[in-house]
Specification:
It contains 14 helices and no strands. By secondary structure, it is an all-alpha fold. It has one domain: Orthogonal Bundle (ABC transporter involved in vitamin B12 uptake, BtuC), CATH 1.10.3470. The longest helix is centred in the first third of the chain and has 29 residues. It is a multi-pass membrane protein. Its main location: membrane. This is Simple sugar transport system permease protein.
């Protein structure tokens, strides 16, 4: 029972990384912007957050530093694709490659660095419940905050005027511009917010999930988060569920190893990526479903003067 409780808790923690990044990318795409630079932003945020905690001793300052790093890179990306109208896909790939190299360069001196011991978290009374106490009520507060964030985003997108404006910008920026909405500024704010969430996800990896710095430690999670937005058909609640599904697949490899299942570790490590490919392949069989849910202007540049 304890093993399954540990697997459940680990699944929620691992899924939080994907959920944060995917929710940020979802906001980007709801505004019509595709950002393929999530991997690079998460890596830069991971080293920014880790270095901040090493020098300050504050986990929460590490999260702020990670969000700032992600938002800063997203701001540059947004300026290039929204104001200079560079190709969104090429610029995102360039950002991802930049993040991989820059984080490796900055992180050289932090490979052997140690963070202060992190405190133990738990919800009084509930954490003492049998089985579910350890699985559900001893997790990092950010795990619970991510669940709340998904609910808030559902309300924002579908129950508020600001959410309606954001979605209208993603559906028809020309119409939104004709009605007097500052399409470029709205898109830039969405991109920066999405970058901050990707940065928070990156900082969570290096500060909480695996409290150390290793080159390229994000290990493709930025790409999985990008695929997750499509898998969830751009719905925050589905993003959250999908993130936990992929998180469970990720943690299953460690659970199988711990229970003595004789499978090559390399094959187990492939599970999250194989699951991503399988899900996308299944979804591609019904392109109409994706087209109906996808923002109409996704990936398309907007020229206010035209």
């Amino acid at each position: 029972m304890d093993a399954y409780a540990l697997l459940l808790g680990s699944t929620l923690t691992a899924g939080t990384i994907l959920a944060l990044a995917a929710l940020g990318l979802l906001i980007n795409e709801k505004a019509g912007i595709v950002n393929l630079g999530a991997e690079g932003m998460m890596l830069c945020a991971a080293i920014a957050g880790f270095a901040t905690v090493v020098h300050s001793g504050s986990t929460w300052l590490g999260f702020v530093a990670g969000m700032a790093a992600g938002a800063a890179l997203a701001l540059v990306f947004g300026w290039l694709v929204i104001w200079l109208n560079t190709n969104q896909y090429a610029t995102g790939l360039a950002l991802s490659l930049f993040g991989v190299g820059f984080s490796a360069f900055v992180g050289i001196n932090y490979v052997q660095a140690k963070m202060p011991a992190s405190p133990k978290y738990g919800i009084p009374v509930l954490e003492d419940l049998p089985v579910v106490g350890k699985a559900l009520f001893t997790l990092h507060p950010l795990v619970y905050a991510t669940m709340v964030l998904a609910a808030v985003m559902v309300y924002f997108l579908y129950r508020t005027r600001a959410g309606l404006v954001l979605r209208s910008v993603g559906e028809s920026p020309a119409s939104a511009h004709a009605l007097g909405y500052p399409v470029r500024r709205i898109r830039l704010m969405a991109v920066v917010f999405g970058g901050a969430l990707c940065g928070l996800a990156g900082a969570f990896i290096s500060v909480v999930y695996t409290p150390l710095w290793v080159e390229n430690m994000v290990s493709g999670r930025g790409w999985i988060a990008l695929a997750l937005t499509t898998f969830a058909t751009w719905r925050p609640a589905r993003v959250l569920l999908g993130a936990y599904l992929f998180g469970g697949v990720t943690m299953l490899q460690f659970h199988l190893q711990a229970t003595g299942v004789q499978v090559a570790s390399q094959l187990l490590s492939m599970l999250p990526y194989v699951a991503t490919i399988v899900v996308l392949a299944i979804m591609s069989r019904n392109p109409t479903w994706i087209r109906v849910n996808m923002p109409a202007s996704l990936g398309k540049p907007f020229y206010p003067g035209s």
